[in-house]
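The material for today's practical consists of a large collection of protein records. Read left to right, the backbone structure tokens trace the chain's path through space. An example says more than a description, so a record of this kind follows:
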Amino acid sequence: MKKILVALAAVFCCAITALAQNTQTDRNRSYTITLGGVQYTHSDEKMTSSEAVSKVMTGMLTGKTSIQATEYEEDVINAIIKGLSNSHRYRYDDSMLENNDAIVAGNLVVEAVITNIQVKTENRTWKGKDGRPQITTSYKGEVEAMLTLKDVKTGEVIGNPSFSGSGTGTSYNSDSDKAMRYAIGHLSSSITTWLNKYLPLQANIIEGSTAKKDKQKEVYIDLGAREGASEGLHLAVYKVKTIAGREAKTQIGKLKIETVDGDDISHCKVQSGGKDIKAALDAGEQLVVVSTD
């Protein structure tokens, strides 16, 4: 009889552990995202040889040129895909629309319109120490795109954000290609940032760590490697209350993950709000954290 009770207790503990893990996984469930189509509004903008000469002559007279850099179209498309792929809770799959099992609520299909891929140059003439005229050329790359994100199951539009990226440099340490590459990289990272804010990682403060007087300096959270925690990730701390059956959150501080200590635990440094965080922990209040980058 004792052996049976021990066995039942073990099964019960395993079930509770599995339930806790599933709850955490559902809390930060991952979804699939794909790029359904791309339109570049200037894709057919080609210059004849005479137009190109005219553009160059104008640039020589004014010191400024501005040209749609259509040759970077494929690079911008790849940057959009990279931006979609690098978010915390979306997994990019270019075959999603061909897989019936992936047509579920929460998965997203993205339509993109690239409105600008432009490189600008400007010459500045100045005199060196020897009195001779010198020319410095500055470069600026600009990329702009608008995305429409739809739920693949319901067709509901969940967002229609616009993104831009820019990159600059001078003839001392750059050229037009580098300026364009910087701009394209900024576009990609801004897409990732938007997705991370739209669907952030969530967790709870489970235990205080280091404290000094009335301020909390470090804490542990129940977010680890399994759900995508990473060193350097920033999080906002919220105190949660239930009012009239609804959840109300008030931000009281900020954290940064110092170390990821396991599948479901990380050690964080308190960056602000240490006094309020310690008071809430001492009072046994629920504190949730939400990623901010």
